[in-house]
Amino acid sequence: MLCSTIGQLIGYTPVMTIPVPNSDATLALKIEKNNPGGSMKDRMARSMVIAALEDGRLAPGGTIVESSSGNTGIGLALAAQEFGLRFIAVVDHHAAPDKIRTMRALGAEIRFVEGDFREDEVAVVERQRLAAQLGAQLPGALFMNQSDNPANQDGYAGFVDELLVQFPRGIDAFVGCVGTGGSMTGIARRLKRHNPRIRTIAVEPAGSIVFGKPGHAYYQSGTGTPAGDEVGKVLDYTCIDEGVQVTDTQAFETARHVARHHGLLVGGSTGGTIYKALEFIASGHLSGTVVTVVADGGEKYLGSIFDDDWMLKRNLLDPAIGEQLEFWLSGMACAA
């Protein structure tokens, strides 16, 4: 297919399978980092912009304002280019530097929130406040508000359509990360409509408050809801069978393991969903075709997750996690 716009390159991403020996399960990774902006958020960003243009909330030549840790911002920068719009990304210190550089390279304007925040503290509340303020003050501007925007979850219809073609015999379970809830809701709801028996597992960072656990600081970016923030209105708990937490160490060590043993650079939130998917398979709670998403690529985290010194200084290295993964992927756990 010949494409004439960047938006036409979104979607149709491939799948890579990781067999789990001596089990009745296969782990399938949908490689969403192959989207032009490098993440699954390209889908929802374009969906939100198109919806806003169609219903008149955003006029041609207008300004998009959004709070983002990076991936949604990159997707919105691409959509702004495609539709001739201005884009202002409101970010904090938690955003990966390469994500900020990418947004700037694509023409986005960057606004940093002010405040004294710990390194492992996600400043979502202040980001949202500033983005809403800019959206209200600037002429022709719209605060996109991905957490409460229905077009967020609507953007994943194509993702599910692709899965149904890629797995004509069907899938048995979906394990996804949950932040605003847009991707998890959009995917899980549509999968359940197709087959109500599909198991849906949502993974949040330990320290996130999505499933009612006590909040505390965490390093995983672009996922979870930190203490002090509100869970997004786009999240539909009724389409999620189980919500679980994953630690920073489990998520990051899994991302490093996948790179070294499978040649695939994945981000930290993806490491978390892979870890929990394998844990559920090894325990016998999931079987058949289990799908999770490479939400974004590890190329954006070479200076953090994949840097030994960065991990060591934050006490995030744990060889036992790699040993656990080897145990699960050797088939010994499933044979026991």
Map the helices and strands.
Layout: E1 15-19, E2 25-30, H1 41-54, E3 63-67, H2 71-83, E4 86-91, H3 97-105, E5 109-112, H4 124-137, E6 141-143, H5 150-154, H6 157-166, E7 173-177, H7 182-194, E8 199-205, E9 242-246, H8 248-262, H9 268-282, E10 288-293, H10 308-313, H11 319-329, H12 332-335
Parallel strand pairs: 2-10, 3-4, 3-6, 4-5, 7-8, 7-10, 8-9
Antiparallel strand pairs: 1-2
Radius of gyration: 19 Å
Content of β-strand: 15-25%
Strand order of the largest sheet: 1-2-10-7-8-9
Question: In this structure, how is the largest beta sheet organized?
Answer: 6 strands, mixed
Number of helices: 12
Shape: globular
Helix content: 25-40%
**What are the low-pLDDT stretches, counting only 5+ consecutive residues below 50?**
none
Query: What class would the helix/strand composition place it in?
Result: alpha/beta
Count the beta strands.
10
Q: Please trace the helix and strand order, writing H or E for each element.
A: EEHEHEHEHEHHEHEEHHEHHH
Span from first to last CA?
Answer: 48 Å
Average predicted local confidence, pLDDT: 94
